[in-house]
Structures are given as C-alpha cells and as structure tokens.
C-alpha cells in the first residue's frame, strides 16, 4: 500500500494532466457548456428551446442516471437510448421549427428553431 502523502503526490498531478488533456473521468461529468448543446438533466431538456442557423449541428447530452431518447415529432431524427453521458447529434440543414421529446418520458419536450 502506498502511504497517503506519496499517493496524493501521484494522483493530483495525474488528475490535473487528464483535465488539461481533456480526458474524461469516471467521476461525475460536468455539464457541457458548448454552444448548440442541450443537456438532459433531472428529467428535463435544458434549454427547452434553441435557435440556430441552417447547417448547425445540435448535440444532446444525457446527464441523468436514467436512459433517455431524443425523437422529433415529425420523424426527422431519432436517437437510440442514451445512457448517462451519452451524446446524440443531428445537423439541421433546413429552416423551420422542430419539436422533439423523450419517447421514454414524453413529458420531456423541446424545440429547435432553424433560421
């Protein structure tokens, strides 16, 4: 067994190096702060509405411990079940309003407006 002082000396720099390299951790993931990303958290989409320009790719990231899906009401896109930290992306090429929901939890709804 490694003494505490020695283990801390190795763990902290390795953890810092992983953060600097953008490597993921088995610890709780931080919510995405990237533009055009919708997070699924606490059984809600956030934000519930997003406006983008045509040609933009939107990402949905599930931060809940329960699976969710992202399904458009017009059948244009449908994700597989997203487990915790999974991401689904879709590129919106055509202007319009696109409503979506989680097919597992249909009270979870949102809208993408493409200009």
Task: Describe the overall structure.
The chain has 115 residues and is α/β, with parallel strands linked by helices. It has 1 helix and 8 strands; from the N terminus they run H-E-E-E-E-E-E-E-E. The chain has one helix at 4-21; strands spanning 37-41, 44-46, 49-52, 56-62, 71-72, 87-92, 96-101, 109-114. The strands form 2 sheets. Strands 2-1-4-6 form a 4-stranded mixed β-sheet, with no helix packed on it. Strands 3-8-7-5 form a 4-stranded mixed β-sheet, with no helix packed on it. A hairpin with a 7-residue loop joins strand 7 and strand 8. Mean pLDDT is 81; it is low at 1-32.
State the strand order across the main sheet. 2-1-4-6
The Cα radius of gyration reads 18 Å
SS summary, helix count: 1
The total beta strand count reads: 8
Helical percent range?
Answer: 10-25%
- Biggest sheet descriptor: 4 strands, mixed
The assigned structural class equals: alpha/beta
Unreliable stretches (pLDDT < 50, length at least 5) are 1-32
On the 0 to 100 scale, the average pLDDT is: 81
What is the H/E string? HEEEEEEEE
Cα end-to-end separation: 60 Å
| Shape call | globular
What percentage of amino acids are in beta strands? 25-35%
Walk me through the topology.
Layout lengths: L3 H18 L15 E5 L2 E3 L2 E4 L3 E7 L8 E2 L14 E6 L3 E6 L7 E6 L1
Parallel strand pairs: 1-4, 3-8
Antiparallel strand pairs: 1-2, 4-6, 5-7, 7-8
Concise account of the structure shown:
This protein is an alpha/beta fold and 115 residues long. The protein has one helix and eight strands; from the N terminus they run H-E-E-E-E-E-E-E-E.
């Amino acid at each position: 067994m490694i003494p505490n002082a020695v283990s801390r000396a190795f763990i902290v720099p390795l953890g810092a190096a992983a953060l600097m390299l953008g490597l993921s951790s088995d610890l709780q993931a931080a919510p995405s702060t990237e533009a055009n990303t919708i997070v699924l958290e606490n059984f809600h989409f956030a934000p519930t509405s997003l406006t983008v320009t045509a040609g933009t790719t939107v990402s949905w990231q599930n931060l809940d411990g329960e699976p969710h899906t992202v399904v458009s009401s017009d059948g244009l896109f449908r994700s597989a079940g997203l487990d915790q930290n999974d991401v689904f992306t879709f590129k919106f090429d055509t202007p319009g309003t696109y409503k979506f929901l989680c097919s597992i939890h249909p009270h979870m709804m949102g809208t993408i407006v493409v200009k």
